[in-house]
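re: that chain from earlier
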Amino acid sequence: MGVENPPPKNNRNGLFADAAAPAPVILGLQPSALVDHVARVDWSLLSRIPGEAGGSFPVAFDELKSILTEVNAHNVASPDNSSPLKTIAGGSVANTIRGLSAGFGITCGIIGACGNDDQGSLFVDNMSSYKIDLSRLRLKNGHTGQCVCLVDELGNRTMRPCLSSAVKVQANDLTSADLRGSKWLVVRYAIFNIEVIQAAIKIAKQEGVRVSLDLASFEMVRKFRSQLLQLLESGSIDLCLANEDEAAELVSGEENADAGSALEFLSKHCQWAVVTLGSKGCIAKHGKEVVRIPAIGEAKAVDATGAGDLFASGFLYGLVKGLSLEECCKIGSCSGGSVIRSLGGEVTPDNWQWMYKQLQTKGLPIPESNNFYQS
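^ sequence. v structure.
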């Protein structure tokens, strides 16, 4: 990939380093910074792009440009969507740690790389505005990753990431200092990042940092199931989160394969296992305890982008605060419900307010440190 730029003065390996700053409580590993282009489109466009609707399928840069060109013709107008595209810092891990910082007041940082281009500047500006620690984000010569997020009339999202030419942090870039002092490392399964994921997890375990793994997409689980099983069976994953489609792929071919059997499988290898069920809520297991929580909130999904990522924000917040498994699930359900009320994986201030009211109504603890709570 790109050659790393000379770092700023007193900056060990990333952007805006502060040697006196304590380690973030939660670190997210996103090897390539990513910018999301989010748009509502009609089904006719979804039928003509590569891959199945509803999932995440990598595309080449020319394909990404072609999709973006067509978005204007297939954009679905709405009162809160005057522009064809909403462009923000994206990626599952970035969504999760941004939610933890913005809505829950947990100190977070990101490990990865961004390009010295306009997309990289946008990523840095957006994450900085939420006080994300960027001292572990390397600046490299080259392109920043991009993803088109297409949202249909029912609020379902189809993602087409373009990472083939994006700069990324490599396994040999990582050091123990990247993770020392933090409590959790958040990672997302991706076969093209498997080496850096494995390296980060190895360092995390050496430093006493717990690891949370998101299963990414049903396509990723389907195509690279054996490598995923090796990762789970290593015993290094403390928390694993899967949606219903990913869970189905994980146990495909087994008798009585369903979300429950996937939960049982995950719980054999992880301390905490969670399967989110969309409008049906979630199921989770820790030790011998199993809970099933209904979805919270009656709002119709405007855009499902980031629902699982923000569920993870709430669930991790609960774990950091030592809450019960049921409380972790309920807070996760509230935070996941907050992001689907508007376009993109970034929760608006109004929707954080909605979440806090849900927490209050259900007798759940409201974060003491956050940017948006009003009593």
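The chain is about 35% helix and 20% strand.
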